[in-house]
Design a protein that fits this description.
A: alpha/beta; Aspartate Aminotransferase, domain 2; seven-stranded mixed β-sheet; four-stranded antiparallel β-sheet; about 35% helix; B: alpha+beta; OB fold (Dihydrolipoamide Acetyltransferase, E2P); six-stranded antiparallel β-sheet; globular
């Protein structure tokens, strides 16, 4: 039920309304609207009950195990939120003088430095306001670098076929053509195909490591050499940074530019379309091109960098200081963990994933890459089950909801048929992981014995199976009053 | 899986039919629609567009994924199936009737380089490992 459907003409929440409504009498008559805006007319209590009920229907990381993992959002420690909501932060005007905001600017600078340290890059800018925005900034810097050298024949970005769809999309947005290279049977970049693909037209390579297949590229040094020898630059997609945080650094692997999704790796909120934050880190040669805003420290004083500080910058990518509220949460998270704690993030993320993979394998599930050690996530393929019973990965995922587990990522990556991409993250206990394995086994048994039960799942949630085909074919997103 | 013997096929899972008027109709195979799942969107190329062999020219979107459709041979687009754009579910229900666009081939002999039904069946089998 929508909030509009609780509405009643003339009903108000008087206590919430502003006391002094400004007169609009000085506006020209032709600019005044003739009809009332279409807003729900409800009491305060209607609103409270409506949104409380919605939140109770929510299947979330605060209520259930959520094996979408850092791919979507990790658990957000409460302290990050509490401290970022201190009135001293909230009340700060974005245009306030640096003099009156040294504490805030020092926090931002410290976050920049911690991100730089943990990724092994030469410098970091926190300007981008989402992961995709960070990707855009990264490839725009690659382009600015080649352009600055007059090396304008480099028109091609190479992406493995396992890449996130945003990678080729970003390359296109930056005016490049995309060349796709295949993945070998072990889930690695096909090095021979990469060698054949590079040349004087190569601007760079975009790579996720560990890849979307959940495995680490063992030939990363050789890959870097091929790209760099051809005159290209290499881009690290930070989507899977959680797997290696502080243990293996993209800078040490030879990457020239990286974006980090703070909601994936640094526990900031995400969802509902944002806000996000996608800081970028660069190697020494890309440093002049960093986007603003970022914080400069001079003899203990902090201030935002301006255009004049960095004449070769690709420019300003966000107003004021970027998504400062999100950046603050990441700063608190990083401060709470410290360097050692960050190493433990990757250790426990990898341990949990490998434990879960081993237990599911022992229970008879097919891992997509059984000979490979999982990174922080791994892929189970249900192809055999689908062939034998007709139960698809989607049916399976829906039935898991009945057992109180959010579904893992389904049908991504597309390279693996009927796949579940499972990422527990570092915060889950052994008991939770064991309960998840038990539910997986139970659903598989049901698929064989009572397939209809699985096909029609979920049964116990506020809504039953949604018709996603109808929803996509007949998009209906705007509420209209009944005639 | 249905693979009509009278059609030609590409590695990227398009089917191609040579029509009596010398044009060729293009759609995606039964196997391709099965992999993609329930179709929700089709964008066919504009009439008059000249295509090179292998060029991306149409987009299909299912509940699972978006996928490009490629020109099987070089030619000019002489028709786009607007009716199918309004009813993309027909790609699932009858893939070999669901033509997406028609080409006037630059060179009709290019069709000879495409796979026949037997070769395509082997190709599908090899992709399944």
């Amino acid at each position: 039920m929508l909030i509009f459907e609780h509405a009643h003409p003339g009903r108000r929440a008087h206590a919430q309304a502003p006391h002094n409504l400004a007169e609009a009498s000085d506006l020209p008559a032709e600019l005044l609207r003739q009809s009332k805006p279409l807003l729900p007319e409800t009491s305060e209590l209607d609103v409270v009950r409506h949104y409380t009920r919605l939140s109770q229907k929510n299947f979330s990381i605060d209520t259930q195990f959520y094996p979408l993992g850092s791919c979507t959002m990790k658990y957000n420690p409460r302290a990050c939120n509490t401290l970022a909501m201190l009135p001293q932060f909230l009340s700060r005007h974005p245009l306030a003088d640096a003099d009156t905001g040294q504490g805030f600017l020092a926090s931002m600078h410290e976050l920049q430095e911690m991100l730089r340290d943990v990724t092994g890059m030469a410098a970091v800018s926190m300007a981008p306001m989402a992961g995709a925005h960070g990707e855009f900034a990264g490839v725009a810097m690659i382009r600015a670098y080649h352009d600055a050298r007059g090396d304008t024949a480099r028109r091609e970005i190479i992406c493995p076929d396992a890449a996130h769809g945003t990678n080729p999309a970003t390359a296109s947005m930056c005016g490049y053509t995309v060349r796709e290279i295949p993945t070998d049977r072990q889930g690695n970049v096909d090095l021979a195909a990469l060698k054949a693909a590079v040349g004087p037209q190569t601007a760079g390579l975009m790579l996720t490591n560990p890849s979307t297949l959940g495995v680490f590229e063992p030939a990363i040094v050789a890959i870097q050499k091929v790209v760099h020898d051809a005159g290209g630059l290499s881009y690290y997609d930070g989507a899977n940074l959680n797997a290696i945080l502080g243990r293996v650094r993209p800078g040490d692997m030879g990457f020239d530019v990286i974006h980090m999704n703070l909601h994936k790796t640094f526990s900031t909120p995400h969802g509902g379309g944002g806000p996000g934050a996608g800081p970028v880190g660069v190697s020494e040669r890309l440093k002049p091109f960093l986007p603003i805003p970022y914080v400069i420290e001079e003899r203990g004083d902090y201030r935002w960098a301006e255009e004049g500080d960095c004449p070769r910058s690709i420019g300003r990518l966000s107003a004021f200081g970027g998504n400062m509220g999100v950046l603050l949460r990441a700063w608190v998270y990083a401060r709470m963990l410290g360097r050692q704690g960050m190493h433990r993030v990757a250790e426990f993320a990898a341990l949990n994933a490998n434990y879960l993979a081993a237990e599911l394998k022992r229970a008879g599930f097919d891992l997509a890459f059984p000979e490979r050690r999982a990174s922080h996530e791994f892929i189970v393929t249900l192809k055999k089950l689908k062939d034998a019973t007709g139960i698809s990965a989607m049916d399976f995922a829906k039935r898991l909801l009945d057992y109180g587990f959010h579904a893992p990522t389904t049908y991504f990556p597309m390279l693996v048929p009927e796949c579940l991409l499972i990422e527990p993250t570092e915060t889950e206990s052994k008991e939770t992981l064991d309960a998840f394995v038990a539910a997986m086994v139970k659903v598989r048994d049901e698929a064989q014995l009572e397939p209809e039960l699985v096909k029609l799942a979920p049964h116990s949630l506020p809504v039953r199976r949604l018709d996603d085909v109808k929803a996509a074919r007949e998009l209906d997103l705007v509420w209209k009053p009944p005639l | 899986m249905s693979i009509p013997a009278e059609l030609k096929y590409t590695k990227s899972h398009e089917w191609v039919r040579l029509e009596a008027d010398g044009g060729v109709s293009v759609g995606i195979t039964h196997h391709a629609q099965e992999l993609l799942g329930d179709m929700v969107f089709l964008e066919a190329p504009t009439v008059g567009r000249k295509l090179a062999a292998g060029e991306e020219c149409a987009v299909v979107e299912s509940v699972k994924a978006a996928s490009d459709v490629f020109a099987p041979i070089a030619g000019e687009v002489i028709a786009a199936n607007a009716e199918l754009e309004g009813a993309p579910e027909s790609i699932n229900s009858d893939p070999y009737a669901a033509w997406m666009f028609k080409l006037q081939p630059a060179n009709v002999a290019d069709l000879d380089a495409l796979m026949d039904a037997t070769a395509y069946a082997a190709h599908v089998e090899s992709e399944a490992h």
